[in-house]
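Propose amino acids for all 252 sites.
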């Protein structure tokens, strides 16, 4: 099949061979082959202008490591944006705003994204500012390059594109979609190693099952992620007023 104008991802990287990598498999890979999204990995080194094809230089002010040059990065950004100027230009950096599902939904709703992967000590600040890049982090730890972060961001976006996920509801009920972590899942056998599936899930009573799942989702969010729970509780005062659920599988 062909999609009229697929969601378009451009990745600026010194290691274009890392793409599509894991995104060539499973849901994302199938969607890529079906033309639901498109991916181009652009080699930043292709925009170097000297005979050594240099992309980096030593940090002004001294210190360890190397910094990606603004002129080279800027030329790479211009080339990527020429193929889709309405897309957000995102730089992956530990200093960025932590990626969350709301941001992912925003990127997935755009015509696509341009992702800039840093290496070494990072990227010259002037090009980040001049291009008004959106700075995004995938967590409070340091990777050796932006490529794994770009793969994470792309994976999260692609599964939200129309026609990519099999069952539409699997996206509506999962963690973060309602501001809660997801309830626990069970399948057959109904008893495994003396552990039984919660009886309500075998009752066939849909309203009871929905109530149980909602209570589990609230309990696990309350226990594990107080900051998510505080936000949810502010928006759902009735849920917040209920006593914490006893006997939750993760309860201490
Ligand atoms: C070795 S890191 C540079 C770390 C930088 N000197 C610092 O202390 O913030 C090289 C590149 O990996 C990427 N990177 C590392 N950690 C990341 C994270 N948590 N989220 C997104 N990108 C990250 C960025 O593109 C960064 O420019």
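Proposal:
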């Amino acid at each position: 099949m062909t999609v009229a104008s697929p969601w378009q991802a451009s990745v600026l990287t010194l290691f274009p061979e890392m793409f599509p990598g894991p995104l060539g498999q499973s849901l994302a890979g199938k969607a890529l082959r079906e033309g639901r999204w498109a991916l181009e990995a652009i080699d930043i080194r292709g925009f170097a202008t000297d005979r050594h094809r240099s992309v980096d230089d030593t940090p002004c002010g001294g210190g360890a490591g190397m910094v990606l040059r603004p002129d080279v990065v800027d030329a790479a950004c211009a080339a990527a944006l020429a193929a889709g100027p309405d897309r957000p230009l995102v730089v992956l950096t530990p200093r960025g705003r932590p990626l969350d599902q709301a941001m992912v939904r925003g990127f997935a709703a755009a015509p696509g994204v341009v992702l800039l992967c840093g290496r070494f000590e990072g990227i010259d600040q002037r090009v980040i500012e001049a291009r008004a890049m959106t700075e995004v982090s995938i967590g409070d730890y340091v990777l050796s390059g932006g490529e794994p972060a770009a793969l994470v961001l792309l994976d999260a976006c692609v599964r939200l594109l129309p026609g990519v996920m099999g069952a539409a509801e699997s996206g509506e009920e999962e963690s973060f979609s309602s501001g809660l972590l997801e309830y626990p899942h069970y399948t057959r056998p109904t008893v495994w190693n003396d552990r039984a599936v919660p009886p309500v899930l075998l009752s066939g009573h849909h309203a009871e099952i929905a109530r149980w799942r909602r209570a589990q989702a609230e309990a696990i969010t309350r226990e594990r992620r107080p900051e998510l729970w505080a936000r949810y509780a502010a928006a759902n005062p009735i849920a917040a007023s209920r006593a914490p659920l006893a006997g939750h599988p993760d309860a201490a």
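The two ends are 50 Å apart (CA to CA). The chain is about 35% helix and 15% strand.
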